[in-house]
Amino acid sequence: MEILVDTVNLDQIRRYNETLPLNGVTSNPTIVKKEGKIDFFEHLREIRKVIGKNKALHVQVVGSTVDEIVADAHRITTEIDQDVYIKIPTDEKGLAAIKVLKSEGLHITATAIYTVFQGELALAANADYLAPYYNRMQNMNIAADQVIAELAQAIKASKSQTKILAASFHNVEQVTAAIKNGAHAVTIGTDVIQSGLNVPLISAAVADFKKDWESLYGSTTIAD
Ligand code: E4P
Q1: How close is the Cα of 167 to the center of ligand 1, in Å?
Q2: N or C terminus: fewer CB in 10 A for the chain?
């Protein structure tokens, strides 16, 4: 299981790189916009410095023709490094660009996946990751769990190295459902991480345990 954060906020990346078993960072233009008009490549190089070479950095193209997508990918890898996963929307032009870029040895994340059909085509194109959009599928009354389960099955049947990187989560229940249905990786927004960890029930249990310890031994830690 791989855990990624769906943000380009440097403070949040530093924080979760310290506290979570983090495998990487994902971004898209909407996520970038949340930081204001940053120096895009300088900012992404800083993220790379924070997470290091061993963690994955997924960066999305914005070009809309095959040539533009390929050019975006080349600029991203030139400005950051060759290890970046290039996120490409899974439509006809995106699939054509994936063919070109895979033949050059680049790492690819086929994104904006809403259907098993899109995922199967990206799998056949040998994308490294397939990114199904969990919440957006649910908004469209598409059975997100089933899409992920069928793609996981297709990957297994083809003995492919491709992984499912489930994305677009708006609550923790969606994250755990994606994992249960076969996602190999999940990218989670910092708001969802907080809503899963910053839970009054957890704080209340911790406070009760501390109170009982103190009433027995009079110290606030075992080490005291
Ligand atoms: C990954 O980075 C995806 O683009 C992202 O998770 C989409 O999330 P959204 O549906 O909340 O915009």
Answers
A1: 6
A2: C
Distance of CA 192 from the midpoint of ligand 1 (Å): 12
pLDDT digit string, tens, across residues 79-121: 999 999 999 999 999 999 999 999 999 999 999 999 999 999 9
The pTM of the full predicted model, rounded to 2 decimals, is 0.96
| Beta-carbon count within 10 A of 194 CB | 12
Active site (catalytic) residues: 87
Token reading at 90: 């899974």
What b/e string do you get for 85-113 counting C-beta neighbours within 10 Å, with b at 16 or more?
bbbbbbeebbbbbbeebbeeebbbbbbbb
Write the ipTM.
0.97
Distance CA 100, CA 65 (A): 13
> What are the residue ranges spanned by the domains of the chain?
2-188, 199-224
Atom of ligand 1 at shortest distance to CA of 167? 6
| Token reading at 190 | 């910092």
Residue 206 tokens, joined: 């911790």
CATH architecture of 2-188: Alpha-Beta Barrel (3.20)
Ligand 1 shell residues, CB under 6 Å = 6, 26, 28, 30, 111, 133, 135-136, 167-168, 187
